[in-house]
Design brief:
Number of helices of chain B: 5
Number of strands of chain A: 6
CATH architecture of chain A: 2-Layer Sandwich
Strand content of chain B: 15-25%
CATH superfamily of chain B: Glutaredoxin
Strand order of the largest sheet of chain B: 2-1-3-4
Order of helices and strands of chain B: HEHHEEEHH
CATH class of chain B: Alpha Beta
Number of strands of chain B: 4
Number of domains of chain B: 1
Radius of gyration of chain A: 16 Å
Helix content of chain B: 40-55%
CATH class of chain A: Alpha Beta
CATH topology of chain B: Glutaredoxin
Strand order of the largest sheet of chain A: 3-4-2-1-5-6
Helix content of chain A: 25-40%
Structural class of chain A: alpha+beta
Oligomer: heterodimer
Shape of chain A: globular
Largest sheet of chain A: 6 strands, mixed
Chain lengths: ~180, ~120
């Protein structure tokens, strides 16, 4: 994976496959402590303890089309080479929370990449799922909540091209603002 | 700066023109979004479809995703389902190739044979 936005797109696929109807992504950058945390929380079917243990094993997957599952193992490797770690919490029937921490300024820390493209792709292809994306930096917080958008657009589908185009610009501008112009 | 008021305007403007169809008679474009697809460049391919469809206002076409189809070596992979229930699988896709698939297949109904899995597999 070239950047963190691609990891996010990939990891959220697990939540979608787990039947989640609500997916919350929390990103926090702390420059003072030189720390970056990314958390993904869903209300999908969750995993038992045995599955949690095997989830970061590249040779474990629930899929039947192939024998490897690389999403979580790749993300875990990325966190670890940036002096961080990955933590999985899950309750069967309730949902799963993935928490990753990185050293923000680590030389190997991948750039964020196009978060706007990731979110737009997710919303477009999963119109029935509610997404919340929150991103905090020292300049402020950006928040996207598809439930708020749905309230405004009413019966217009959220994956309507005009709406999607608006959402993408909204994310780009919002992230620009809290990054002092640097993505 | 994008405001929520603009969203309200989009709603009013779009609801009049848009066909709120819930049936599945249109053409579906399905992009593989497994780890393999994403790392091979599925996201720009999917967004290129959205952009081309928006430009041409192809209201009968929907874009969606699926997981890994099982032929990871041919990612990014795109399946096109037309209303006659025919499925065409395009492999090794790029945003450039998307433009051709949209004009030739989605608009004119001509399959782009060179990009299909059948033709690419024979070459390999």
């Amino acid at each position: 994976m070239q950047d963190l936005s691609l990891h996010l797109l990939d990891l959220v696929q697990n939540s979608i496959a787990a039947g989640a109807t609500q997916i919350v992504i929390n990103v926090e950058e702390d420059e003072e402590k030189d720390w970056l945390s990314i958390a993904i929380e869903d209300n999908g079917r969750g995993m038992d303890n045995e599955t949690i243990k095997r989830a970061t094993d590249p040779f474990y997957t629930t899929r039947t089309t192939r024998k490897v599952g690389l999403g979580l193992p790749l993300f875990k490797a990325t966190t670890e080479r940036c002096g961080g770690h990955l933590n999985l919490q899950s309750t069967v029937g309730k949902g799963t929370r993935i928490e990753a921490e990185f050293q923000l300024g680590h030389i190997d820390r991948p750039p964020f990449g196009r978060i706007d493209e990731t979110m737009v792709t997710l919303i477009l292809c999963n119109a029935e799922i509610d997404f919340v994306y929150s991103h905090k930096t020292k300049y402020g917080q950006f928040l996207l909540d598809t439930r708020e958008i749905r309230k405004i657009i009413g019966e217009l589908p959220i994956n309507n091209v005009e709406v999607i185009t608006w959402i993408q610009s909204y994310i780009r501008e919002g992230l620009n603002e809290i990054n002092g112009g640097v993505l | 700066m994008k405001t929520l008021k603009e969203l309200e305007e989009i709603r009013q403007r779009t609801l009049e023109s848009v066909n709120l169809r819930k049936d599945r008679t249109g053409t579906r474009v399905v992009v593989g979004m497994g780890t393999c697809g994403i790392s091979a460049g599925a996201r720009p391919v999917l967004l290129a479809f959205v952009e081309e469809i928006r430009k041409r206002n192809l209201q009968h076409v929907t874009v969606t995703q699926t997981g890994c189809v099982g032929v990871c070596r041919y990612e990014p992979l795109v399946e096109v389902y037309t209303p006659d229930n025919e499925k065409v699988t395009y492999v090794n896709m790029t945003p450039e190739k998307v433009k051709r698939v949209v004009t030739e297949h989605l608009v004119n109904g001509q399959i782009v044979r060179d990009f299909t899995i059948g033709v690419v597999e024979k070459k390999d």
